[in-house]
Write a structure and sequence with these properties.
6 strands, 5-stranded antiparallel beta sheet, Thiol Ester Dehydrase, Chain A, homodimer
Amino acid sequence: MPKLYWEDFNIGDKAVYGPRLVTREEIVAFAAEFDPQPAHLDEAAAVATLHGGLAGSGWHSCALMMRMMADGFLLDSSSMGAPGVEEVRWLEPLRPGTQVRLRTKVLDTRSSNSRPEMGLTRIRYDLVDEAGTIITTLTSTMMLGRRPPGAGA
Amino acid sequence: MPKLYWEDFNIGDKAVYGPRLVTREEIVAFAAEFDPQPAHLDEAAAVATLHGGLAGSGWHSCALMMRMMADGFLLDSSSMGAPGVEEVRWLEPLRPGTQVRLRTKVLDTRSSNSRPEMGLTRIRYDLVDEAGTIITTLTSTMMLGRRPPGAGA
């Protein structure tokens, strides 16, 4: 039985997950597999780029956010997935050695007319560094199963 | 010298990159690292989920799209990165054994007032299967360096 159902997410709810230390090795490994641009792969080449030094792929920060969501609450919930993401903004470079946290805020919650067994929860996710600076922010709507009668609160 | 500058992307331009075969192994490896939900990790557990069988993480399809973009044109271009992604829609499950392609279409192109050395190019990216069904679609605006005088056409 999942611990968290749609009913457990209310507008304005905030949480913080992590921390997680992002290493140079994982930044380079992700880049080598999925985003082999010089800024993400190689310190010397990265100096000449927009970021002025090695920085993780924007998609790597999204993947790390996903992992922190999963460990933070999703795997303990009645999640039925998400149809997508509204907006992703890569605001600051993801530097090696950063200790990141995932901050969440529930923006919206509504029941589903067509599927009474589920509800929709719109959440903003911010990946932040030690100082609270937002590295990446995204907003997504999650489909969650509703608490069945007798499942307890 | 990059081959492609901002001037080389025109509204309506279309291209197709790939193909790339997506294996069960890479789906499971990505999920184990970034998105350990049963639907992405384990065939038996996946049958009971929304997708009715093993399917790649939505973020995995985004990462694969990034790799196909990079190999397809980005590494040969004057790309200066992207501020983010407008919208990601996960329309169909990414099944193991699918041969995917990346379809692109230039939606918009404009010069930058504040930075005359660069231009902005808004592109829609569709990850499609063998039948042309869209698995994931996203739209993003890329910053591209403008062709310097004397760089040839």
